[in-house]
Amino acid sequence: MDMKTWFKRVAWAAAMLSILVAFGCASTTKGVKQMSQMDLPEHHYFMGMNFLDKGEIDKALREFTRAKDLDPEYAPARVGIGLVLAQKGKFDEAFASMKKAKKLSSSKAERVIYHTGMIRLYTTWQGKDWLGKAEDQFNDAIDLDKNNPAPYYYMALAYKTAQEYERASMEFRRVIDLNKGYVEQADNGWKDIQRILRAMPGTKVGRDIAKLDKITRADVAALFIEELKLEKLFKNHNVKTQRTQSFPTDYKNHPLSADIDAVIGLGIRGLEPVGNRFEPDKEITRADFAVMIEDILIKVLREDNLPTRYIGSPSPFKDVDSSFYAFNAIMTCTTRGIMEADLNGYFRPEGPVSGADALLSLRRLKEALTF
């Protein structure tokens, strides 16, 4: 073999070796096989965020994990996983996932997703100086892209959580003005802030509950006892209550157990125990809340026909039939301006009650009971 041929063969072997090495390195980072045209990391990340925003965190985790499996170096998948872990209270793992996301972020868009995810993580975590750390992430995000609405929206939610309502309102307005996404959510958030400011909660429990998107039976009990001062209200109006001899046992370690004890003793319809359970963490609907408010009106006002006043009347609402169990209560609350339907004529009886809505309704209830 001549020297020229030998060099050619050595060069060919070296080239093949480099290809095999490169292929071997790539195989260590390549994800699982794609199963369909839409089986893409970006699609699963999008679906995961939708599930996360709806509170379906297990479904969200499944989507984010699939995105990661398809592409282990896809940074947004790590952001999503971090947010799910935070929702589960696993903050050490959540921050570790975010650290990995930061390292993998290779484009401006991915870095904005990372910084926005960190705003959300700090808002859930609420450890030492969490708001300041969220603001640092916000500033980093808008330095990269000042026209992306996501950092503004989630910073607004952070300010709302911190009860910095004026600053929250300002960031919601920026999202609306940008008009590039999150507009409906920001509009609802801005309106929610206005309701909170109008309701002016006077107690710490009221201020804490004001920031909640959905309130529970325990939250309502606390608002009735501490914000509405229902025990004093009943006493001033000589409302007779029948003290129960036994109390449920499923809320004894609940932080609002004292409020629940008090409200059970007042016998509010719709907020009474069922068997040996109070179910303190069960979310209430707008129909539930209307029934509770109506019962307070009945007990204080003592209007003879109030419990049946609207039975048999046609319903003015597109989504509430006159035969609905809470129809009379809904009519009682809406005709007195305590609760409202939307501009399209929907009451949304099965919809949740936010803390801001509850507080504003209680303020209007106080006004209705001033006589």
Q: Mind explaining what this structure looks like?
A:
The chain has two domains: 41-199, Serine Threonine Protein Phosphatase 5, Tetratricopeptide repeat (Alpha Horseshoe), CATH 1.25.40; 214-368, no CATH class. The longest helix has 27 residues, at 3-29. Helix 4 runs antiparallel to helix 5 and helix 12 (217-227) crosses helix 14 (257-266). It starts with a helix and ends with a helix. Helix content is 63%, strand content 0%. Mean pLDDT is 91; it is low at 19-28. The chain has helices spanning 3-29, 41-53, 57-70, 75-87, 91-104, 108-125, 130-144, 149-161, 165-178, 183-199, 204-210, 217-227, 230-236, 257-266, 286-301, 327-335, 355-368. By secondary structure, it is mostly helical.
Give the topology.
Layout: H1 3-29, H2 41-53, H3 57-70, H4 75-87, H5 91-104, H6 108-125, H7 130-144, H8 149-161, H9 165-178, H10 183-199, H11 204-210, H12 217-227, H13 230-236, H14 257-266, H15 286-301, H16 327-335, H17 355-368
Q: What's the CATH C level of the largest domain?
A: Mainly Alpha
| N- to C-terminal distance | 113 Å
- What integer value in Å does the Rg equal? 28 Å
Low-confidence stretches: 19-28
